[in-house]
Amino acid sequence: MNGIASIPTPINESVLSYAPGTSERAALKSELQRQSQMVVDIPLIIGGEEIRTGDTFDVVMPHAHSHVIARAHRAGPEEIQRAVEAAATAHHDWSTMPWEDRAAIFLKAADLLAGPWRQVLNASTMLGQSKTAYQAEIDAACEIIDFFRFGAHFTQQIYGIQPLPAPGVWNRSEYRALEGFVYAISPFNFTAIGANLAGTPAMLGNTVVWKPAHSAMLSNYYVMKLFEAAGMPPGVINFVSGDAPQITDILLSRSDFTGIHFTGSTGVFNSFWKKIGANMSTYKSYPRIVGETGGKNFIIAHPDSDWHAVKTAIVRGAFEYQGQKCSAASRAYISASMWAELEGPLVEEVGSLTMGDPRDFTNFVSAVIDQKAYDSIKSYIDAAQASDDADVLVGGECDDSEGWFVRPTLIRANKPDYISMCDEIFGPVLTIFVYDDADWAETLTLVDQTSPYALTGAVFARDRNVIREAMDALRNAAGNFYINDRPTGAVLGQQPFGGARGSGTNDKAGSMLNLLRWVSARSIKETFVSDTDYTYPFMDEK
Ligand code: NAD
């Protein structure tokens, strides 16, 4: 095509309300009913071919764990190697395809998702990952659409970054795909993260082996089908599940492994980094290592701030999606004078939160993701109930008879280094430390030093000097810092998301910074009239 294409300027996808009487509510309810009656057989998808190994595992609804909604096939060593070979086969044509054609596939996927696929993705996310309608909408619909539209826009901007000219010389930058395959490994908690981890390197011309989390298999399978429906060629993204350490060991020992795109827990990411280090002599290129990991996100409230706003920030920030957002508030530092007013209303509000099956739209929260998560979260609550250093103020009830339900729980810690102030719990548990009003500056130091993580955090204050002081003291304590707002709900293109320290490589998912990790620039200098004499003027005698 002769013409310089231009990607439409993206705007964030509007979040639908699902209020009673809306057409989206009716469509979602009917799709929930349809999917609730199915058991989807999820194959591996390698080189465009659906492969069924017969070695399957069950995918269940966390809020009704006897209800199987899918059976997914596991890859063995042979299929894992096939996935890499399929990625290698697809690499040449995909990486050299005109970038507008690649972008068009993602723009089409975004439009399909905004239209006919919206409720397929939302319903599967609600049923498989126990999200409410609203939480599914902002994740599986809006954020994926934004990833694709903004990604195409940033791709064009990157390709437009070109070097300086010089007389007689034409300088160009070519943003090549990496030489090899990218390994994308996604977590359970956001359907959009899977779409981004696999999709973004592909947008820049890379080919990918994608391993989703077991508990997010259903929605992630539909993401893969969406890519196919949008015209993604076979082998560009290869969808495999199975034994995670085995898949990882095989992929990280290949010479053509060229990058890892991970979101999940810090310990798992650290284990990858070590393996990559140990295998360095094997690789053709230095691999790109991109990982967004754990958090211990904070709220700190100054005595001069509005306790009503702090209450809402705690309830939404700590408990939406059962506290299983990477950004969820997990520790709060409240001044003693504010606590005197806040405690009663906060405890009452948390105690009143509705919990249950997300198909009942009156519920605000649902179940946690699986038995392992349930047991781990419960162990922190049990310990707090037994400890002299902490009190459970509200919640604490756990029941795994039908689903993995943990009631939203507030713990008050009597010392700032109590265990639930420090560890990532990844569930509906917020621990509060009440500080003396006079100890504001010391409390800022506590917030900064209590946890190895630095993902999100929020300060509530009115006085501008106080806000400035908190921003300085907590400069490295959060990659996403909020002033008078809850620390969750980052919107793509508006608050680029990611943390440093133990929270990851801070490559800001969905931003141009992340996209830059998936290209390898080639500088091209072309001389129009080549030199034919090797000597220089300074060499003349006179
Ligand atoms: P996880 O680390 O258990 O799993 C993530 C992925 O790694 C999954 O696909 C899993 O199968 C795989 N995996 C697990 N153990 C492995 C091993 N030993 N070898 C190879 N692969 C392995 O994380 P999760 O429970 O799915 O997600 C929750 C975690 O993710 C939390 O720590 C949360 O903070 C983090 N998270 C961070 C962000 C962020 O942007 N920083 C976003 C979402 C989630």
Task: Outline the structure in words.
The strands form seven sheets. The protein has a seven-stranded mixed β-sheet, sandwiched between helices. Strands 9-8-7-10-11 form a five-stranded parallel β-sheet, sandwiched between helices. The protein folds into two domains: 79-293 and 504-522, Aldehyde Dehydrogenase, Chain A, domain 1 (3-Layer(aba) Sandwich); 297-483, Aldehyde Dehydrogenase, Chain A, domain 2 (3-Layer(aba) Sandwich), CATH 3.40.309. The chain contains 16 helices and 23 strands. The relative contact order is 0.13. Helix 5 (133-159) packs parallel to helix 6 (191-203). The mean pLDDT is 98. It starts with 22 loop residues before the first helix and ends in a 15-residue tail after the last strand. It is of the alpha/beta class and 542 residues long.
Q: What's the total number of strands?
A: 23
What gross morphology would you assign?
globular
Rg from alpha-carbon coordinates:
25 Å
Question: How many structural domains can be distinguished in the coordinates?
Answer: 2
Low-confidence stretches: none
- CATH class categorisation of the largest domain: Alpha Beta
CATH topology title of the largest domain: Aldehyde Dehydrogenase, Chain A, domain 1
Tell me the major beta sheet: 7 strands, mixed
Helical stretch tally: 16
Quote the distance from N terminus to C terminus.
Answer: 56 Å
CATH superfamily of the largest domain: Aldehyde Dehydrogenase, Chain A, domain 1
Bound molecules: nicotinamide-adenine-dinucleotide
